[in-house]
Amino acid sequence: MAAASLAFDIVDKKGLEVLLLASLLSFQDQSEEYRTRAAAAEATSGGLRAYQSTSAGNPTPTLPPKPGEALVVKLQSSHKREPNEIVVGSEGAVDEYVDLACNLLQDETMLFIMIRALDPSQVQRVVQVAEETKRTRRRARYEEELHQYLRYEDEKTSEPKGPKVIRLDGSPPKE
């Protein structure tokens, strides 16, 4: 069986050039749109207000950040490991974390968000943030329902482990 030839002749080289240029420009437009949407989501404060302003299409002036918001943003920048993660600490009000969660969920590229407690004493606040986020989205009349899954994890300090030694003679391992 002869190998099929994948080479083909291009009849309209100018048309191909225009097609390639148009596709590259569409990628650039999509990238710029994503950046402006992300910047608008960060600038907007208030989960419910953010949903209403984007659905109404009326540009609203951005409010200066509240003093508690600065603490929440600082906490996120110092403890956040993933882009879709929110770390809840003792600083800031629950509403500020809810606003942050709503802004993350507004991004179409976010499939899910993780809300983590900074320490075990903040687990109740994490649950409050999750419940308020669901409530806020329900008030904004979003069709897609949020599902929350709770998982308790104990972070273990990872000590460098050496190679595992398997004794073939049956003697107990030395400690």
Automatic annotation (TrEMBL):
Basic and acidic residues: bias regions: 152-162
Stretches with biased composition (Polar residues): 51-60
Organism: Thanatephorus cucumeris (strain AG1-IB / isolate 7/3/14)
Protein's UniProt name: Uncharacterized protein
Region (Disordered): 46-67, 152-175
Domain of life, source organism: Eukaryota
